[in-house]
Amino acid sequence: MSAIKLVPRWSQDRGNADHGWLKTFHTFSFATYQERDHQQFGSLRVINEDRVAPRTGFGTHSHKEFEIFSYVVSGELEHQDSMGNIEILKRGDLQLTSAGTGISHSEKAHGDKTVHFLQIWSLPSTSRLTPKYFTRHFSDEEKKDQWVRIVAPVDAERVSADREGSGPVPVQSPLTLFATLLGPGKTLERALEGKKGYIHVIQTTGYNSAKAEGASVKVKGKGSHENLQLREGDGGYIFVGKQGDELVVENNGDRVAEVLVFDLD
């Protein structure tokens, strides 16, 4: 029987702000939202679920000593940075900025549609690294009813350090990220190699600051009778009993669920 323990992080309990041009949720403390029980989890420091109105966005600002990646759900995201990178990111695109000793960048909605994306930060294992930039694309077909490894440690197996290429984005943190588009009635298992993890169900059917609705998944450790029911925007802390314990995710709803699972040291 699995020794995995799950602690819910309900969508409506996340930090939430509507700035007009930006509608955002914060899983962990961020900006004016400060919650001592939700500061970080392992190397995972930020999961912000952002919706940015057309032709608006985050102006040029600076970062250092963070791994910053953007997972585009819908719309188009325009990225520019001090390394000379200019890129329009679309659904399925994943962009990682390894800030290292310091970079400046801007992120704005491109075109006439709102962009919905997850902004995720992790803490690097090594400080004072040279800033780098990476992009990858993972299609809906690739993620359909299977786990796709989209982020992995830079020294992990089958991880390329190419700026663009195939396979997971290389991150300077003990963090592996899996994504799936799980159809109704489908079940996936995921062995976790780290000491902890985090699961997040993306809020794909629309902005909702109240109790979570939409897609529905049941999560448990393999062999366990205890489970956690999550809907769009909900998440959960995962405490792993022993290396290799398996997480079971079942879509028991009526629509596709877009799910992320972080495997953390």
TrEMBL record:
Q: Which InterPro entries match?
A: Pirin (IPR012093), Pirin_N_dom (IPR003829), RmlC-like_jellyroll (IPR014710), RmlC_Cupin_sf (IPR011051)
> What are the required cofactors?
Fe cation
Pirin N-terminal domain location is 16-121
Gene3D superfamilies recorded: Jelly Rolls
Any note on cofactor binding? Binds 1 Fe cation per subunit.
Binding residues for Fe cation, per the UniProt record?
61, 63, 105, 107
Protein family according to the UniProt entry: Belongs to the pirin family.
* Protein name (database record): RmlC-like cupin domain-containing protein
